[in-house]
Amino acid sequence: MLHLMRLALCQLRSAVGDKERNLQRMVETVEGTDADLFVFPETYVTGYMVRDRFITLAEDIDGDSVNFVLDLADRTGKAVVFGMPLNDPCVHGLITNSAVMVTSDGRVQRYDKLHPANFGPFEEGLYFTPGQSPAMFSFRGRGVGVCICYDLFFPEICKAYAMQGADLLLCIAASPVTSRMPFEKIIPARAVENTCPIAYVNNVGNQQNMVYFGGSQAYDARGRLLAKLPYLRESVDVVDVDMLQTEPARRARPTIRDSLGGLR
User: What is residue 2's predicted lDDT score, i.e. its pLDDT?
Assistant: First the structure.
């Protein structure tokens, strides 16, 4: 079981609609960085502001893009989490805003965004169907709970992961500059209330009329800042997350034990 996780926060700008370019940058980053788990932003593969093109850019979970990343993971022995639009596995014609984890053992895991943002400048409700439930990922014996951007404002999602024994929370995002203040308040709150490390990886720069603030960051199980990337420019940073810290944090502040419907 992994005790110290080397987590790469990959705050890279997506080329809008250019899967090949975005995947090639992923290759360069993974091959050129020493880390166990690489995390890329929401809709990284296609870019966020493709609008109606989401319908044609979406793929099956066993499509070309995921298979490309599978090959990368197999070749490097590293794991990758990234965002992309996927075809709904049950209903033809529906697509989801999804996070995918690909590991070097050939395993592919999927989480579909539960709360597509559909207010203000966001139009996800026009393109995406909501996911059905939280979906805990597994990586080297550790539970990894993933959410996507607006999902983070619904604390029950991260709580559900923590109650299932999550050792790490991840949020991949395409958060614009107008959202920076609320996100920067709730990211450490999710760590504290769940006594669980969290990493938030945001898109950066402009896509059409949207400007993403970057500012990717990570906190430990007690809510202490581990790393924060710059605003408005690309950056990749590796943070060491102590996976043994969660147990003493939960003994010191037993929020999971004392939660409604908690473990007995």
Answer: 80
